[in-house]
């Protein structure tokens, strides 16, 4: 569990944010306030608990360079949520505080969308939506061909699933019986230009994944206990898996939770929102 402590344990109510989750949210806002640049705050805040469970308990990330090819892979397809990924990778020692503090500055290694850098834990350059799942399927198939045992996790947004390339990749995952890939859907029901149900309704999402051949699981996306169960409980069948994570855009932002207003925003000052954390 990479050093989790009693202070990191989930509260009794899964919809409450624990201290570690709040600290990561505050860190993101601190970086943006210091740099005085905008960032995709809402999309980042909806995936923090998912990333914590992945990096604490699911991903095998050997430090031994001789075994580096056997590492599990995580692809953040909704690359605009990268601030959450950077902050979690900072906690894991893969990104330095100095690097994160330079977010989006000239010549800095960390920009507004992730760029592939394995030494920092970033497996793919993403941000053009609909690309991450095809990349992840290619990785999983490559593992099959080369006899590697690594697992691939990929996180997509529900709005991102408007992109047809996702479904082409999903069909291929089923065709090849890729049991070594898990898709996580950030089901926050919001995208940049409005509620997902207004832009392109997809009320049949679970049935769609199931009908094309995926194992389908659900989890409240801010409840780490439930996420652990969804990700770590053995499956009864083979083939690819999707975990639909019911989340809230901007989780932790008080009155702005579930609102598109903080999809992309500049933080005027940390004092303006410090009471939230």
From TrEMBL:
Q: InterPro entries, from UniProt?
A: THDP-binding (IPR029061), Transketolase_N (IPR005474)
| Segments forming domain Transketolase N-terminal | 29-263
The membrane spanning regions, by residue number, are none
The source's domain of life comes to: Bacteria
Signal peptide (UniProt feature, chain positions): none
UniProt cross-references to PANTHER family, sorted A to Z = TRANSKETOLASE, TRANSKETOLASE N-TERMINAL SECTION-RELATED
* Record-given protein name: Transketolase
Source species: Bradyrhizobium vignae
